[in-house]
Write a sequence for this structure.
């Protein structure tokens, strides 16, 4: 075989081998478009990614939440005058106070008393010269320059098994509030509960009763 012919045959074999080989991964043979690749999630790269649903943000529950505000700080039910429920003083009832909570809201500080049982508590809120613990007759060393006395009725004495559940007597600081500084619980006596609230000054307030569970809400305006 002549050298020139041998060289031609070798060249032809190399060309045929190149045309019959497999396509390189990640490309499409015979098309003029750009290579198409696949991400780990199965979405072609370069394709528009659909916008995902925003992750819900958990809303922390305020410590005194448990019912609607029933108005705003501009509500006409706010008044600086002494207030009481229509049935006050009433008498003993099925309710048992189990907790007191405080919280700051836009335009007012809130004090909430939680109860177990059914019914609606009677109440009276009045400004007093001195925070005197009833029935002991002793002045309570309460922070503040104004004192609101809260008397709640419609209560019963706890059973022996409920002693650990009932609202204990004592004074609690109202941290980070605008006008309310301390809350003192005197305890249940003859179907009534006395609370004394120390504030920076006398301010308009309102009283709301809520159900399921039963709560007595006291809002003291801060603006």
């Amino acid at each position: 075989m002549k050298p020139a012919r041998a060289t031609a045959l070798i060249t032809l074999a190399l060309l045929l081998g190149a045309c019959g080989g497999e396509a390189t991964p990640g490309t499409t043979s015979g098309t003029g478009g750009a290579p198409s690749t696949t991400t780990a999630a199965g979405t072609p790269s370069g394709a528009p990614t659909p916008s995902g649903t925003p992750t819900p943000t958990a809303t922390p529950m305020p410590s005194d939440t448990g019912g609607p505000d029933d108005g705003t700080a501009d509500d006409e039910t706010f008044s600086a005058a002494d207030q009481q429920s229509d049935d006050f003083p009433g008498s003993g009832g099925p309710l048992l106070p189990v907790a007191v909570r405080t919280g700051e809201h836009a335009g007012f500080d809130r004090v909430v008393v939680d109860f177990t049982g059914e019914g609606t508590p009677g109440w009276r809120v009045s400004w007093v010269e001195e925070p005197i613990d009833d029935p002991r007759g002793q002045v309570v060393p309460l922070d503040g320059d104004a004192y609101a006395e809260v008397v709640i009725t419609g209560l019963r004495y706890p059973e022996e098994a409920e002693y650990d559940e009932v609202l204990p007597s004592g004074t609690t600081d109202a941290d980070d509030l605008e006008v309310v500084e301390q809350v003192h619980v005197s305890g249940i006596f003859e179907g009534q509960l006395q609370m004394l609230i120390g504030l920076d000054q006398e301010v308009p307030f309102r009283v709301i009763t809520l159900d399921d569970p039963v709560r007595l809400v006291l809002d003291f305006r801060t603006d």
About this structure: DSSP finds one helix and twelve strands in the chain. The helical segments are 3-19. Confidence is low (pLDDT under 50) at residues 2-71.
